[in-house]
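cache lookup: miss for this entity combination. No prior model stored, computing from scratch. Input as submitted by user K.M.:
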Amino acid sequence: MNAKQRKIIYRIMPYAILTLIGICFVLPLLWVMVASVDTNAMQTLKLPRAVTADNYIEVITSRENQRAFLIGLIMSLGQAVLVVILALLAAYPLSRYQMKYKKSFMLTILFMTSLPITAVMVPVYQLFLSLKLYDQIFGVILFYVASSMPYGIWMLKNFMDSVPLDLEEAAWVDGASVFTGIRKVVAPLMVPGICTVAIFTFSGSWGNFFVPYILLQNPENFPASLKLYQFFGQYGMIEYGNLAAFSIMYAIPSIVLYILSQRFMSKGFGLQGGTKG
Amino acid sequence: MSSMAAEGYSRKRNSYSWLYFMLPSIAIMLVFFIYPVFLTFFYSFTNLALTGESARELKFVGFDNYLHMFKDPTVKISIWNTLIFLFGSAVIGQQVLGFFIALLMKHKNKTFRRVIGTIVLAGWVTPEIVCALCLYSFFGDEGTLNSIITSLGIPAVTWLYTVPMLTIILANIWHGTAFSMLVFQAALDDVPSEVEEAAVVDGASRWQVLTRIIIPYIKETFTTNMMLVTLQTLGVFGLIYAMTGGGPGTSTTTLPIFMYNQAFVNYQLGYGTAISLLLLLIGIVLSLFYTRSLK
């Protein structure tokens, strides 16, 4: 092998390897997309003999599914709104005031963002039983809010640090209260930050399975993630088309929100991105 | 109105005003997050159960749950399974594969980068139950993988029964690699190209550039990403639960699955909590390292 051949191989190799990786990653995804429009979907990826929207229509028209999607939406939306409001309030003194234990508080918050939620679910279940919050949609929202509060505070505090104080002071001079200042001056300047937090908390709970699985019992209260699991268990072996259509519909909000979030994360994706201490 | 403005100005004088702002979020975190963490320690020393006699009378049992844990062979199996799962899907899979993809993508055709990047990202953005379904049918007896290998003349394999651990590791790689890929792409963009070019001019081989310049330069990203990915992988439940349910037998029972089975299938909440304390402690240690690394 001479130098020239070697050079060509070095140029082509990365493309070949990446293409292979890409194929491995795309096959499972392709299956769910194709199966969702196939009249006779099977477990394997195959060309559909006829393309149909029936699977989607069946999924959408089912009362139970509508309910599950609506509950999922209420949970995730409720969580996102509460987290943004509460974290914005908590971030304000952390960003603006001189506080004695600010640094240790922020480190505790950072520490809490990375704790595995899975590990506390058994005690949370017990706690929910004693607080009569078990099997309540509102209870699940409360837990979601608590578990993503550290992330929300951490992000919004850092975003708020970059909002100049002068503008706010100008508003005070014009007679605005602290709260009006936050609402009319600080928050509008933090829209990208607020959207990032809202999107990430929303899609986090939208995709979550474990938390509602532990905290809910009545199938009438199930959000989309649990409904899909139930569906998977009951008819998984036969109804591939419907299952795939449900999956796609359930995955779409996560995908759309991710694409939207890219517009707000101008700085790109670095570990240092939201984490300047 | 002017009194309100004055209130704004004197904000530093009123030393308790921060409390009004922070009270709601601190309260909700205390009740639903920090208190359960302490409950984990507390319950793990009790005989808490969902049914039967001990459901009515909560008793302290000291280290009984822990002694039970040491004797329980399934605990050893699930710790071992968790380690294999962590090593395969977090260390090798997400970290190494994520870095490898990011490295290969560097300086490649823009459209090509975008296509491959989007495909890998799709697996990350997809909710875990959908991932479980996609990969379950991919590895299924009549799934895509078997269709491919039988068309090549290789006999079909019952992947989910023969190599269940491998299937859940690959599923988690499929679901998680994009995160590491993004992190390493950002880190690799920070490596100054002049240094790399200078090394090439001085006659360094590709391998030398990689091991002597690129890797040392982004060393910290490796450690931080490693901890984050390990923490995420440690808590994986839905993906494994929906794909294999921890089986066949106990072959894919990781700690979270074992914890769930003990607490909610066998109704032994106290024992389940003792297992989750193990998870929590590993999580706490890793989180402390993570927090320190960013300090």
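stored under new cache key. Residues 23 and 172 of chain B are 38 Å apart (CA to CA).
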